[in-house]
Structures are given as C-alpha cells and as structure tokens.
Amino acid sequence: MFQALADPNRRQMVQRLCEGPASVSELAQPLQMTLSAVVQHLAVLEGAGLVRSQKIGRVRTCQLDTQALRAAERWISERRALWERRFDRLGAFLAEQDQNLKEEGGA
After folding, report:
1. Fewest beta carbons within 10 Å, which of 11, 45, 54, 57?
2. In the beta sheet, which residues pair with residue 53?
3. pTM for the whole thing?
4. What average pLDDT does this structure show over 49-69?
5. How far apart are CA 51 and CA 14, in angstroms?
6. Is the predicted pLDDT of residue 75 greater than 70, yes or no?
C-alpha cells in the first residue's frame, strides 16, 4: 500500500477519489499522462486494495476503498504511539541527566 502511495500521480488520484467516485477519464484529466498510463497507475492502486472499480457500459468508475486506508491509519497510529513513548522516556532520561549535572556542578 505504501509503495502504491509513493507515486505523486497515484496520490493525486487518491486525493480526487476522497471527494467521491470518478471515471478513469475524470481522474486522467488533471494529469500530464496518457489514458493508458492512468489505467496502469489505477491497477497499482487496485492491487494495493486502495481503489475499487467497476465497468458499466464503456465507462469504468473508480472509488476509494476506505477499509484499506483505515488499516494503514491503524498501523501508523500504533507506530506513532510506540515512538511517542520512546521519546517520552528519552526526555525523562535527559532531564534526569541534566538535573544530575546541575547537582554535581553546584556541590
């Protein structure tokens, strides 16, 4: 999923899909690439589980799969909490070291 989101064009497509479903042509409109390249980018997003599409007649409509984004958000939140605890412990340790240096210097 993160690899799929690493590309700025794919992130732009996901951003557009946050507003609601869109056809492949609508997603391609602001991008400076061929329709074929847009379809390839969408295939990567679909493979990552970020986008679903369906074809009705001649129009393929894409929409965001919010479940995949929620899973990524959970993973990131867990990592953030872990690092916040580590930084809190480091801050406490450094404050203690600072206090010890002050006490040793003042004695």
Report:
1. 57
2. 62
3. 0.72
4. 93
5. 8
6. yes
In SS3 terms, the chain reads as CHHHHCCHHHHHHHHHHCCCCEEHHHHHCCCCCCHHHHHHHHHHHHHCCCEEEEEECCEEEEEECHHHHHHHHHHHHHHHHHHHHHHHHHHHHHHHHHHHHHHHHHC
pLDDT at 3 over 60: yes
Nearest of 30, 23, 106 to residue 11 by alpha carbon: 30
Contact 1, 32 (CB under 8 A): no
Instruction: Lowest mean pLDDT of 28-32, 69-73, 76-80, name the range.
Output: 69-73
